[in-house]
Design a protein that fits this description.
Strand content: under 5%
Number of helices: 17
Strand order of the largest sheet: 1-2
Oligomer: single chain
Largest sheet: 2 strands, antiparallel
Distance between the termini: 42 Å
Order of helices and strands: EHHHHHHHHHHHHHHHHHE
Structural class: mainly alpha
Length: 443
């Protein structure tokens, strides 16, 4: 007679899991914030640079107007990220939306201001206040997402980037079409009201997140070389986008004779690949954390090549073609998702590995650091891109952006080969200690 074994029989597969109500409401809220904020942010690209030039602003001043937004966003991200627990994540997000909506409407009234110094000064003031509101909304959004979805940060952020991409996709053509059809004011009024509607909507559906403040600081985060290197990569990405925001429309109008509406359609080439690719990148970044560095290196190399061919670079002696411009914008959009999506969860992983307390306070600091570095690039990109374009050409300015991306990819590759500790690939849920892990799903 065969001895009985203690091995259990094959068990049926576990029943399908579902998200909690809190997680569903958070996803809906964050999706609405990403979409409405980005569509309001992106409407300026097709027509504001040329409108500002008519009002007496040089291309360098246009770059400064875009750049001041980034500076105030940087300052706001650092301060609000540090004190997110004391302020309250939900209150910060809702107030950020309200401030941004009011500033968007006010920006639509600036065409009534006298040309010259008055117009330029008001542009700086309104954009600066708008940037602080945007910083509050985005810092809170990232931190709350990471808090409520701790084991699938990249997947959720990548999925939410669909709505970010939709905002970026619809903003330029919608803004360009309304500008051509109804004038300067209508795009800002319409989208400012859309953002204002999101305020009561999020007050109603967004859950409240309670947390205790932490004693950690941004400076401790920046004492780790890996985090500094990832921050440089984030800087190169936002610098490239900031450069395109301020300079691409003027280049396309001058070189190809396009209208503002067609410039908005061209910008679809940048937003659509990013929108479609981000969820896939987020899934793989969560499921296979060991590939995050490979994604960032590959994305940086693709970005470098695409920027060199965007003009194209004068030393390549390739004639400028509209189809080539759109194709390179598509590659930049794809590489943006490939590089940017893994950065946020990788910084969180590094922070936890170095002993940072788990919770909303640390996530707020990581989110604030991400926003601050992103804003630094958005300040550098328009200003330096505008200066290089004004004194040399758009083509050389694009080459500089490509060189920054290549340097980031090179440094990541060197770190991965020489400095990064060799370890076995981990599951995404190993980011945090098991006994403190918050479940993502409940049966």
């Amino acid at each position: 007679m065969e001895p009985q074994t203690d091995e259990p029989a094959d068990l049926p597969p576990p029943p399908p899991q579902r998200m909690t109500r809190k997680q569903v409401l958070t996803l809906i809220s964050m999706a609405s914030v990403n979409f409405s904020s980005m569509i309001c942010y992106s409407i300026l690209g097709p027509f504001f640079p040329s409108e500002a030039v008519k009002k007496g602003a040089s291309q360098t001043v246009v770059g400064l107007i875009f750049g001041c937004y980034a500076v105030c966003n940087l300052i706001g991200s650092l301060i609000l990220g540090r004190y997110i627990v004391q302020i309250g994540a939900k209150f910060m997000l809702v107030m950020g939306l309200f401030v941004s909506s009011v500033c968007t409407v006010l920006f639509g009234l600036l065409d009534r201001a006298p040309a010259g110094a008055t117009f330029i000064t008001l542009c700086f003031v309104v954009r600066s206040i708008d940037a602080v509101g945007f910083a509050g909304a985005m810092t809170s959004s990232f931190a709350m997402t990471a808090k409520i979805f701790p084991d699938n940060v990249a997947t959720v952020l990548g999925s939410l980037e669909i709505f970010t991409g939709l905002g970026l996709i619809l903003g330029p053509p919608v803004g360009g079409w309304f500008y051509q059809s109804f004038g300067y004011e209508v795009p800002f009024m319409l989208l400012g009201c859309l953002l204002l509607v999101m305020v009561p909507f999020n007050i109603y559906i967004l859950p409240t997140v309670e947390a205790n403040p932490s004693k950690d600081s941004f400076f401790r985060l920046l004492t780790h070389g890996k985090i500094v290197l990832i921050c440089y990569v984030i800087f190169t990405l936002s610098a490239g986008l900031g450069f395109l925001d301020a300079s691409l429309s003027l280049f396309a109008i001058d070189r190809f004779g396009l209208s503002a509406g067609y410039v908005g359609l061209i910008m679809l080439g940048l937003s659509l690949p990013y929108c479609l690719g981000s969820p896939v990148m987020g899934y793989f970044a969560d499921k296979y954390p060991s590939v995050r560095f490979s994604f960032m290196v590959a994305g940086g190399l693709i970005t470098a090549v695409a920027f060199c061919l965007l003009g194209p670079a004068p030393f390549l002696h390739v004639p400028s073609q509209l189809w080539l411009l759109v194709l390179m914008l598509g590659l930049i959009g794809f590489s943006l998702g490939l590089t940017a999506i893994p950065t946020f969860p990788e910084i969180i992983t590094c922070a936890y590995e170095h002993g940072f307390e788990e919770g909303l306070s640390t996530l707020g600091m990581v989110s604030g650091l991400f926003g601050a570095v992103w804003s630094t690039g958005m300040f550098y990109g328009p200003i330096m891109g505008g200066l290089i374009t004004q004194h040399l050409s758009f083509e050389w300015a694009a080459v500089v952006q490509g060189a920054l991306a290549f340097l980031g990819a090179f440094l990541l590759a060197v770190y991965s080969l020489c400095c990064r500790p060799q370890q076995q690939p981990r599951a995404a849920d190993d980011i945090r200690p098991t006994d403190e892990r918050t479940p993502l799903l409940e049966e």
